[in-house]
Amino acid sequence: MEWVTPKENIQHAVKNNLIKPVKGEKHYKSKKIRQYTKDNKFVKEYFSITEASKQTKILRSAISMCLTKKNKTAGGFIWRYDYEK
């Protein structure tokens, strides 16, 4: 037996199929985001920045910078968290 960190313990459990990793909308840090046109018309809602990035081919970092108000748009769209409606 050896000492491991909690992170290493979880990684071991996932690697050995003892637990399934939580991803996407089920992850506790996942936040819904909304995509709008530049004239503020709703386009689509996504379960996470990663999902939006994969579907739109817009960089995750660009969407994130828009959500944190560092940029006004990303990929020609306005992005907001769901709770900012």
TrEMBL record:
UniProt xrefs under InterPro entries: Intron_nuc_1_rpt, WH-like_DNA-bd_sf
SUPFAM superfamilies reported for this sequence: DNA-binding domain of intron-encoded endonucleases
Gene3D superfamilies (UniProt xref): Winged helix-like DNA-binding domain superfamily/Winged helix DNA-binding domain (1.10.10.10)
Highest taxon above the source species: Bacteria
Protein name: Nuclease-associated modular DNA-binding 1 domain-containing protein
